[in-house]
């Protein structure tokens, strides 16, 4: 169906588009304590000032795990923030699995394609030139991503 889209413009001119049920990690106060943040639907925080916060990645668990787990953890963050996963019906009672991430600049694109290549050895790219030359969807539409989602 048709859904209303909200756009958040960042200081650097890039923008992020959301539906009103998109989950945003937020807090009721300005803090860098990750335990004070919670997930909230965009429609419940419209009108509030939203600050971007990136927690430090100096947690022992993250750095002590193997590279494969790090790649999965990073891809999970991208899929939650700017991606999608779904199973869509095809003819003959088959379905297609789709996993993808939207990137909006060359740094994001390079990082995300590296994750897909490390985890799945391949990816495809769809560029939405009507939005921007840098608006690219990196995806891997095969059943093998089901294990990633189920984990």
What does this structure look like?
It is a single chain. Helix content is 28%, strand content 28%. The chain has helices spanning 60-64, 67-82, 106-120, 145-150, and strands at residues 5-9, 15-19, 23-26, 38-41, 83-89, 95-103, 124-127, 136-139. Strands 5-6-8-7 form a four-stranded antiparallel sheet. Strands 1-2 form a two-stranded antiparallel ribbon. Strand 7 and strand 8 form a beta hairpin. Helix 2 (67-82) packs across helix 3. The two termini are 30 Å apart.
Provide a short characterization of the protein structure.
The chain has 151 residues and is an alpha+beta fold.
Write the layout of secondary structure elements.
Elements: E1 5-9, E2 15-19, E3 23-26, E4 38-41, H1 60-64, H2 67-82, E5 83-89, E6 95-103, H3 106-120, E7 124-127, E8 136-139, H4 145-150
Antiparallel strand pairs: 1-2, 3-4, 5-6, 6-8, 7-8
- The helix count comes to 4
Run of helices and strands: EEEEHHEEHEEH
Q: Assign the structural class, choosing from mainly alpha, mainly beta, alpha/beta, alpha+beta, or little secondary structure.
A: alpha+beta
How many strands, what sense, and barrel or not for the largest sheet?
4 strands, antiparallel
Q: How much strand?
A: 25-35%
Rg, alpha carbons: 17 Å
Low-pLDDT sequence parts: 53-64
Total E-strand runs = 8
Report the helical percentage.
25-40%
- Report the mean per-residue pLDDT as an integer: 78
Between the first and last Cα atoms, what is the distance in angstroms?
Answer: 30 Å
Strand order of the largest sheet: 5-6-8-7
* Gross geometry: globular
